[in-house]
Amino acid sequence: MLDNRLLAVEKPARYMGGEVGTRCAATPELRFVLAFPDVYEVGMSHLGLQILYGVLNTLDGVAAERAYAPWPDREAQLRAEGLPLATLESGTSLDRADIVGFTLQYELSYTNILNMLDMAGIPLLASERDGRYPLVIGGGPCACNPEPLADFFDAFLLGDGEEAVVEITEACREWKRAGGTRVELLERLAGIAGVYVPSFFDVSYADDGRIAEVKSLRPGYGPVRRRFLADMESAAYPTAPVVPFLKTIHDRVSVEIGRGCTRGCRFCQAGYLYRPVRERSPEKILALAEETLRATGYDEISLLSLSTGDYGCLTPLLTELMARYASERIAVSLPSMRVGSLNDELVEAIRTVRKTGFTLAPEAGSERLRRVINKGISEEDLLRNAFEAYSHGWRLIKLYFMIGLPGETEEDLHGIVELARKVKMEGRRAGGGGEVNVSVSTFVPKAHTPFQWEPQIPVGEILEKQGLLRRELRARKLVFKWHDAPLSFMEGVFARGDRRLGAALRRAWELGCRFDGWGDRFDEAAWRTAFEETGIDPTFYHRRREPDEVLPWDHLDFGVTREFLLRELGLSRQGAATEDCRAGRCTGCGVCDFSQVRLRLADDGWRGTTTRGGKDDAEDVEGKVTLRLRYTKTGAMRFLSHLEMIGLFTRAVGRSRIPIRFSRGFHPHPKFSFATALSVGVESWAEYLDMELFPGADPTDIGTRLNGALPEGVRITEASVIPPGSPSLSVIMDKVRYRVTLPPEAAAGLPELAAAFLARESVPLRREKKGRVQEYDLRRELAELTVEGNALEMVTGRGKPLEFVSAITGLAPEALAEARIEKLQVLFKES
């Protein structure tokens, strides 16, 4: 029988594996698991994980595989059956890997890390793991202060990973060949630039709870300096990434056009962690976009950077991309744009992109407070950009602000309301009206920023400020969204915490905390208990830090000097600006060595070469060819929903470059239509879809090209042109032939049961779904029924196969969970 366990969980595609782009060495010398402590669709949207997956899988003898945090329903299922957490590629339990590398993206995913280790049978504490267990290493933005996780990790990688991960892998491989001790492995790793081994440092505390000293236990080791990738132009990029079956957070080609930002916003941790700015050339970006589009079949390109609007030749790059891909209806999108980086030419270029929402981030409601945080934008800039967006067709502008910034007053909160009102008025001035969504987060002081010494406001104050904004914004008919105060509280604790938090983290996990960053999953009471039982006052970590205080992360060097950060803190209190060194004057932050590590900017004089056009030419082609395809959906593909199958075929069409016609409108889609929506869990040998193509399409060629782009289990078996005006599949379908193979314990007396069912005159069924009631007679809908061994073969009209089987056998659907359901044939009406 087939393994149908995934039918019992939400979104089976999270756990299937087998996606296009996956790679798995059969017998690798070293297995490296890339573990993401959140659900699949969040992890699959993370470009960094895709980059490392590509880098590692190019190494001889190395297999990089993936694992994600299972949702509670899947966790319960695995624990009930005594099964370990395993990789998607080969089903290898994480404890059988050589390295398990966690992406540390968000502080509120830490309990998921402990849960994943436990589900894999890996001891939580690094001190309890010997050579039988994998090396557990972490990297990502939260590695800038990994101290709350120090007890659980063997090592952390600070900074850029593309080159360092290769060195880490080779060090582990050499150690494995030599058969050394665990400590010897850590010694090897400590010799790699950017690798921090927490057990090689000792932390002592003063009587008042502050850190007295962080002492290195290895002469010459520390402070540990982050790893720098010198040049993005030659850096690895995943042009053949794993393409998920289900819709993810960022369901598109993501091209990193540059890394780093030197705007110097004093609250922004990323702006300090990823310095200096290193941009890719437009020629390289275009080449990467082309190669990735062909490998993935996505219909959208996103240009990623911390400050995309600062890219020197962004306008000609956008124009070039849209000109190249207009006829294929491939859109180009940008992340939130910095106020002031927009001009009329750029907005005009963006205008032809799919317009959903236009996002601007003023961060603070007054110019005074924006000077404090060094945001460097004016109200005039914001209103001008809003007018340009509304004038070019946008109807919604999203504004991002923060509350709790250093020096904030109630006047600044009213400034948020007033600024949002003025932005909405720009929509009216533009002539078409406009909507404004105001999104407000709470400021969390982060490590390695000028505000790392500042306090975080308490939960009560957060709620008061949110209440004021809610009342004032709604009175002006402005949409208000906010970040939950308890989540901001917890983020601040772990972002600024020390090693003592490890005990509370473990206790919270033991109390059932999982997915703390998901508001509806956060258990505030359990966390309160965890802190009380471990004797920790979490508000201790929200306090103001003194300039001479030893901070938990002081032994980790991310390039920007303490002196520079303190100078910036002083300037913030004066409301004084610091220039962006992109303009030419070095601000003395300490990151660059002006040789390898330095500012690298693209040529801002570059201009594209492609003539605008193509889309209109394609629309002018007259005539169409409708191709009718029959295909299979078998094996693991049975777990895909109808919506996921639509996405699968959309990307397959893109990969195979089929000359398909597109719908009109602002969100054009390839024109194909499925016969019916097949239920999840049903295998099919007879699925159908119609596809509209431009004239001249060869059915055999189309089928071959699609099969080259489809995953195992989905295969085109027939392709033929149908005459113009032919009725749709849904009109001509009459009945369906199914085979249901029952587990042995459910098949006793099957011939007699089938005969008894056929002898009945009526078997009424009443089904209620989403408030709608359907009633029909199963006996009248059954045209044929035969028994062969444990299998029932039937021809039916309306009704689901298991509804018939349940009525025939008298068994509840739960008892039939392991049945194999196959759709064998579609019977069409005679013309």
Key attributes of the depicted protein:
831 residues, alpha/beta, 8-stranded mixed beta sheet, 19% strand
| Structural class based on helices, strands and sheet pairing | alpha/beta
What's the overall geometry? globular
Distance between the termini: 39 Å
| Percent in helix | 25-40%
The number of helical segments is 25
- Which range does the strand content fall in? 15-25%
Mean pLDDT: 93
- The count of DSSP E runs of length 2 or more, i.e. the number of strands, is 29
The major β-sheet equals: 8 strands, mixed
Low-confidence stretches: 613-618
Radius of gyration: 29 Å
Describe the protein's architecture and organization:
This protein has 831 residues and is of the alpha/beta class. It is built from 25 helices and 29 strands. Strands 20, 21, 22, 23, 24, 27, 28 and 29 form an eight-stranded mixed β-sheet that branches. Strands 2-1-3-4-5-6 form a six-stranded mixed β-sheet, covered by helices on one side. Helix 4 crosses helix 16 (501-510) and helix 12 packs parallel to helix 13 (410-429). The radius of gyration is 29 Å and the shape is globular.
